[in-house]
Amino acid sequence: MNIYVGSLNFKMTEADLKEKFEEYGEVTSAKIIIDKYSGKSKGFGFVEMPNEAEAKKAIEELNGSDIQGRKIIVNESIERADRRSNFRGGDNNRRGGNPRRDNYR
What we know:
CATH topology: Alpha-Beta Plaits
Oligomer: single chain
CATH superfamily: RRM (RNA recognition motif) domain
Largest sheet: 4 strands, antiparallel
CATH class: Alpha Beta
Strand content: 25-35%
Radius of gyration: 20 Å
C-alpha cells in the first residue's frame, strides 16, 4: 500500500521516515519529495508498505501524531491519473470553438 505523509518537518530524512513506519511492519520504500530548484524538502512524502493490515495500522496510529515537532497527516495515497492523457488545451467542459466569439451570440 502506498501511504501519503504530509506536514513533515523540513529537516526529516527519508531514513527517519522509514524508521518511524518500520515500527508497524515492513517498509519497501520511504521517499520525501524534494523541490527541484532549492533542493529542500517540500514537507511531504510517500511510504510503501507491502502488508495492507500493517499499513492501515500505521495510518490509523500515526495520523495526527507529533513527529519532530509537527503534527503529521497520514492517509492512503490515491494514485492520480496521468495529467496529459485528458489534456485538450483548456477547459474540458467547454463545447469548443472560440470562447470570445461564443460569448456574443
